[in-house]
Amino acid sequence: MIGAVRRNRFFEGASRRMKAIAGLAALLGLPMVLLAYLHSSVGTEPFPIGEMLPSLQLASLNLDPVVLDSTGSRKLVLLFFTTECLYCKRALLNLDVLNRRYQSQVIMMGISLDGAEETQALVAQQRPSFPVVVDLEGNVRDICRIQGVPTLFYLDEHLVLRSRKVGVRSIEEDERDLKSFLGLEGL
Fold this sequence. Notes:
By secondary structure, this protein is α/β, with parallel strands linked by helices. Helices cover 45% and strands 19% of the residues. It has 2 domains: 42 residues; 127 residues, Glutaredoxin (3-Layer(aba) Sandwich), CATH 3.40.30.
């Protein structure tokens, strides 16, 4: 009888330990699964500096096709953004100011990773001085390996990525980087 009581207490303790371990694994497992999903869905590496940007199939806000495959002899700055991102809205405003100052030296363009309707509403509100296009097919994020928004791509005349900036930035930081990209640092 005493042996049976001891055995039951042992199994009860083991059962509680197993439940605690299972609970801990569930708590830790969910974030790990989420991180693994985000890592695999975004990609492991950002778009490489020095690589030529592939041709992107985009659409104007009127839903006319836009193919980004040539800029002539001018450099290009692309802003990848989403319409609900507060930092992206700030980046759009920064790019608008810089476009007004440097539009003779560089082409600037916004690429919305959201749908046309949401993008049209944001553009109507902010009225940027540069073109904004949308990714209707939803593949630009993967093609360009965008890992966070806002993201700025600085591309040379041949659409080769020369620099990339991700995240919230001040207008001063953006202008300093743009001047460096354009070779205007001392001016």
